[in-house]
Amino acid sequence: MGNFLPEYFVGGAAAGAIGGLFIHDLVGLFVTPLGWGLMYYFVPIILKKPMWSHGLSLVGFWGLAFFYPLTGIHHFLYSPIPLFLQHGAVVTTIAIEFVVTTVIINFFGTLSGQGDKLRTNLPIRWFYTGMIFYFTTCLQCSFQTTLTFQRVIHFTDWVVGHAHLVMFGVFGFWLLGSILYLFPRLIGARRWYSDKLNSWHYWLSALGTLVMFTDLLVAGLVQGTLWRDLAPWEESVMASRPYWILRSFSGAAIIVGQACFFWNCYKTWQMTTHEPSSRAPAPAA
Fold first, then answer.
1. Regarding predicted confidence, which is higher, 163 or 23?
2. Helix axes 32-47, 173-187, angle to 10 degrees
3. What's CA 212's distance to the chain center, in Å?
4. What is the DSSP letter of 285?
5. Which whole number is the average pLDDT over 223-250?
6. What's the sign of the alpha-carbon dihedral 156, 208, 45, 109?
7. pLDDT at 21
8. DSSP H helical segments within 112-166, as ranges?
9. Looking at residue 106, what is its pLDDT?
């Protein structure tokens, strides 16, 4: 869909439609099932309880499978692609928000009665922070996919902030939560080298992502408003500079957070070369 159909078999606006489907199906039908799979696997293990509702799990799965394949054309609103396809993408994108809401309810229902885990268990904190960001980005998407919103935010930094939130703030956080849980077990370490470094990693990543997302969201509205009013391009660039500076600082915070994590992984692995493996069989009684 992504390389061969538009290149060799389909041309014109139809190629754009196929490309749009590929772009978004790559996220929604490949990355999203992987991310949901991590959540559905690790959260019950860590909380030591089953999912709150198996029925809602089925609604989430089949809702994703039914609505998501048609959403990709919302990347090409106001293009030569037939308008009925654009309208279909708008409707299915909004429908996905309702599907995502069932998933959010299911996971927070599972957390019910164990809310203190958000403070005491760092992998759970990563998972549920990503879950909150996931709800935010899908709610944002259901608005920004409408033709009314697109008149303002099309091609602006709003879209860049949205993409950063969903790919790093959601799927990246779920992946990092999984690694945080698995890494010491995989290498036979009894503990992480530094809980403080893990804490710094979380807070720098979470706050950096939140600041970047909010900053680019506001920047996009500023840019889109200036373009709508036919202001000179240079004026929009000058108005964007403070937001781009703040984005650089938030991005630097994220990078420092990952450096803390990589160093912690290295030192934790190094500890296993000086300690007996926790996976060694217990001595016979």
1. 163
2. 50
3. 14
4. -
5. 96
6. negative
7. 87
8. 117-120, 122-144, 147-153, 157-164
9. 96
